[in-house]
Amino acid sequence: LVQAGLERMRRGRARPGLQALLDVAGRDYRQVAAADLGFALAPRLNAAGRLEDMTVGIRCLLSESPAEARLLAEQLDALNAERRALQAEMEEAAEAAVQGKLNQLGGALPAGLVVAEDDWHAGVVGLVASRLVERFGRPVLALAPVDGQWRGSGRSVPGFHLRDALVEVDRRAPGLLARFGGHAMAAGFSTDSDQRQPLAEIFAEVCQQQLGPQPETPLLETDGSLQPDQIDLSLAQELAAAGPFGQGFPEPLFDDDFELLDQRIIKGRHLLLKVRHEGGGAPLTAWWFKRAEPLPQSSVRLAYQLQVDDYQGLYRPKLVIRAEGQRG
């Protein structure tokens, strides 16, 4: 179904709203891929509901007028830029809070994390929770104040049913959660302002009992290593053609040792590297999104996805880094 929709969009038959969103995101409709839906279109559509009025996105999708769709897409683009700035600030504060707790506890984090700040936006806390799950590999609840209460959003890890965990929290402390709902991997809830610390303690206990001790960094399963001569445009295109990837069908993930040739921070938020496979081969471009710290060592083991880079119409392989590992 997704593939059929992408093919329709590539033929220039997308609805005006989708075409306008592709335009403001700087995407060529003739080359649109599933990743563009997830990383370019969806965040702009979701930004309206997170920060302002979700009907802006609905109106954009339903519009029959290219001119009206363009205006609405530009409004969504501006809201998405605002969302990105808020998210970056909140993620920085959240990671600092978790790092402070890590230092306070002598290097041992609770099996489940709860973070909250007085100036956070409730529409963005789910994204913050997702970031912390990715960073620390354990269930996370993130909260923000709304109308005298605290509204929260949670994200989980495989094998831990988040809604059932909140049911257990509610059983142990009736009334602690004013309301809650969700599913295995995500949940929403609200609580009174004076209940954050009890919530953090009970949630950590539930996570500890169900998950046991958790490593400080999440374990990552990969599809193995590639030889230097396999990391080329041909394989990147074959992998892209095997998509679209998503829940239940993840994009292939590889791991190898690389020599670090160069690196620089882009826009204060992303790390752009030039690397060479330890077994030889040509230098490769690698992106590590949402990492603003350079790698300190000259050689490194990386978990990465092999993708097609079509920047400025030139096609070449690129690596998208997901994690750093221990050299074997």
Provide the CATH architecture of the largest domain. Roll
Query: Poorly predicted ranges (pLDDT <50, ≥5 residues)?
Result: none
Shape: globular
Number of helices: 9
Estimate percent helicity: 25-40%
SSE string, helices as H and strands as E: HHHHHEHEEHEEHHEEEEE
| Largest beta-sheet details | 5 strands, mixed
Distance, first to last CA:
41 Å
Which structural class should the secondary elements be placed in? alpha+beta
Query: How many domains would you count in the coordinates?
Result: 3
The CATH class of the largest domain is Alpha Beta
CA radius of gyration is 21 Å
Number of strands: 10
Question: What would your notes on this structure say?
Answer:
The chain has 328 residues and is of the alpha+beta class. The strands form 2 sheets. A 5-stranded mixed β-sheet has the order 1-2-3-5-4. It contains 9 helices and 10 strands. It has 3 domains: 82 residues, no CATH class; 103 residues, Diaminopimelate Epimerase, Chain A, domain 1; 98 residues, OB fold (Dihydrolipoamide Acetyltransferase, E2P) (Beta Barrel), CATH 2.40.50. It is globular and about 60 Å long. Helix 3 packs across helix 4. 28% of the residues are buried.
